Amino acid sequence: MAERQGCDLAAYGSWRLFFPKRIFHPLPGKPSGTIHVTSDRVIFFREIDVWKEVKPLLTPLGLPTAAEKEAKLNRQKAIGARQYCEIFPSKLRLVHVRRKSRLLDMRLAGNEGNRYEVFIYTDRDDPAFFDLLERSMRQSSLRS
Prior knowledge:
Layout lengths: L1 E11 L9 E3 L8 E5 L4 E6 L2 H5 L8 H16 L3 E6 L4 E9 L2 E8 L4 E8 L4 H17 L1
Antiparallel strand pairs: 1-2, 1-3, 1-8, 3-4, 4-5, 6-7, 7-8
């Protein structure tokens, strides 16, 4: 079990498509989320940052969408909601791993043939944490 603060996560539906479906998107700026790694799952969560979510939509054609999204996020934030992404390594197989400074890129294959790509960003280089994530994904793949 481990916890790492100062992270962000991006998850996409496939690594074989030019424009894959975005499952969970990162926010611009300094990573501010937390990743919890357990024996059964990897959980990422972060506080809702309304400005970072709405800022990319602030164009003349995007103003109605930005206003709607801002109102929705403010309601959610008022009741204490957070954004989260949950990964169950036992249902996935690690196919490929690529590391760069402050970035871990994992390509995963699901039991039903689905493909996913997960990017994990950190606020500083942390090879020990990336080792832990990679090891937890590989070990759960072997148990299945």
